[in-house]
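3.2 Worked example (two chains)
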Amino acid sequence: MNNSRKIEFDDLAQVLTWRTTEYDTLTALRAEYAESLRIAMGRFLDELTAIEPRSAEPLLTVLDSTGDDRLISILTTPATSCRLITRRYSREEVRAHLLAEITAPGARTRVGYLGVVIGRIPVFRDPDNAPMRPVAERIDRVFTGIATRSAAPVHYLPMVVRELWLRADRVRTGFLSNSPRGFVGRAVLTNPDLGIVDDVIVAEAVIHEATHGLLGMSEAVGLVAGTPWLRRAMPDDGRCRVVSPWTGRGLDLPTYLHACFVWWGLLHLWAGLLGTGLFDECRVRGRLRRAAAGFVDGAVAARLAECREVVDPALLRCLERMSERALGLLADMESSPYTDRAAQ
């Protein structure tokens, strides 16, 4: 199967400008993602039926009586999509998981559910971990405030984040956010209850991980359709490790590509909140400058010179356009009347 994408890389970049006009684009991507998961499940069921028909019967029986909305909800759960898209699990593990999910009452009965929903996103915590309800309430408050100034980020969140996990790890000394690779739509905040974590950090972390959810959907669509972001396996000679212009760390190629979109999305988030008074203007301007920093030399795509043959050419062109547009946005910020006030 080698179908063309309905949602192109430039469309992803447009969604990450956080404008309500991009709602239809994101809706289309979600539909494309759901259809890709249907196809992946169909392939799995065909394989299971051919090799282990007796094992497949109970699963096929419950699927016949599962409504379409319920099935889509199950397929797009991070733990389910990971089992269908990646090759980390055995046939029996995938079969058992699907059967358990279809016969389970729903996400809010799972171990760790905190009893809190933020914009339709269920919030979880590790069992026997630190109290996290106040953190969840704070996140809800932060994004309720953002919605009064910029509706799109809040409106889009539940479309790309299926689960928000709050963890305490006192072995770590600081705060961390991440999206486990392969688990599309699972955002994890570690130590969000620390005193150093203010509203700006909370907002940026959630949007950061939401962007990974968006990109994960696009990657999954490409893998199922035979049009992956990476056209072939990466060489193992280290040429495809790229130094991030934002953090200075060496990143593998998929992580670097994600980073470009993440920082692009953060650039537009803070540009949209500049001058609103919702956050401290100095902090907003600082986060905006940090997001723009990796784009200022215009070399986001040029850094991929050693492994350009691996990356989808359309993705490379998109990165080049993002870099050009970021420079224009930064110039607009420098001429903003809020710049002088923030610098005082």
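3.2.1 Second chain
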Amino acid sequence: MGKALKGIILYLKDWRNWLTHSLIGIGILLVAFFMPVKPIYRILLIVVVVGFNVTRMKLSKKKKLQEEQGKEHNIELIAETEA
């Protein structure tokens, strides 16, 4: 339960998630004025957006870790060449 709660809090702290959900919400409202959309399709759209954002966050975290590991490796190489 704690891991899920931490994941939700992390998800809600990311400004890109807020921006994406806001834009999708506005889009749904605009479409609803001109073309009624069944609620199931609205729910599916939100699920897809959440899935996209979670995947984006995981890839971003993975890339950041790889960059940090690369920097650590470079520092080790520099230390070895100076010694």
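3.3 Remarks
Helices lie at 2-13, 15-34, 39-82.
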